[in-house]
Amino acid sequence: MKNKGIYNGKSALLNQLMRFSGFALFFLCMMLSSCFKEKPIKQPYIITNAVYVADMGMNYTKQIYFNMETGRFVDSNSKYDYDMAFDCGFTYNAWVNGANLSLVSRTGKTSLQDVTMADTIHGWHVELGSGIPDSNAIGQWQTNLVSNQQVYIINRGIDSVGHSLGFIKMQMGDFSTGSNSYVVTFCNMDNSNLHTVSVPKQPSKNLVFLSFNNNGVVHDFEPVNTNWDFIFTQYSVWFGPPNNIPYKVTGLLTNPNMTYAYFMDSTSNFDSITLKSVQQAKFTTTRDNVGYTWKRFNGVAYTELTSYNYIIKSGNDQYYKMRFLDFYNASGIKGYPKFQYYLLQ
């Protein structure tokens, strides 16, 4: 399946990015009514009657992991902590940070030093929240663990106020079977600060992460892949014709190792949903089946769609019903998703 999230344009990308915030806000108004150890975190909020609040912050800086069986927020990190992520299982996909609206241009060239911004002529690929490998932004970088040596230009995305985080040239080397590591070379667009970093797989994790800051820093802050069901995070979506723009949204992505979900309906009484309501055929591996669609933006504020019912299947083959109740805290500050779920009997 081809990546549908490709951003094309002959004008300078930076100018396009500076227009994203204002233009995308208008579009939404119209179209959408260190640490290498897993550590416990202060629980953002746990309320009675199976109601929880995830404290992402008003700028959605935090990425927060949740375990449905224990009813606990397992861990968290800043979405600015990394630029790339790499598969740790039996697959070898490379990803960029969709939480920051990172984009990738596949230059088709193999000489790192020869690549310039002019090589973005082929357009930009968006890292979509669906998590489907054959639609990711980097694409197929290897055959039998041998790199095709393609040079990528990575737009590192934007910060909380829409400022560009800059551009990096990146090239994947052959996967090192001896050290079970990815080999990544990167530099600035003017070829300064050239570095090669080994990124070892972590067998108990879904992903291992790389930041281009400080000459390249490897992180494995994601919890053990059997210890969480979903993550609250920003991620990228693609708004197609006639506007054709990528945009950041805030929502929930499931754990691709063990958790599946689907939107049930907006008509059933939440209290009446039972195990008999589950439709197995509706579960897919797509990570954003819950996503951000449980709220709407009217240009001023968000409205929660409390009638939207979701079914979650966890790694221990337990089934849950889930709904969202709010996106604001008691002080009226956005970035605090309030949700409720129950084990289906």
Q: Give the overall average pLDDT.
A: 89
Name the structural class.
Answer: mainly beta
Total number of beta strands: 25
Distance between the termini: 38 Å
Number of helices: 1
Largest sheet: 7 strands, antiparallel
Walk me through this protein's architecture.
With 345 residues, the chain is mainly beta. It has 2 domains: 142 residues, no CATH class; 166 residues, no CATH class. The chain has 1 helix and 25 strands. The protein is globular, with a radius of gyration of 20 Å. About 9% of the residues have low confidence.
Concise overview:
Helix content is 6%, strand content 37%. The protein has 345 residues and is mainly beta.
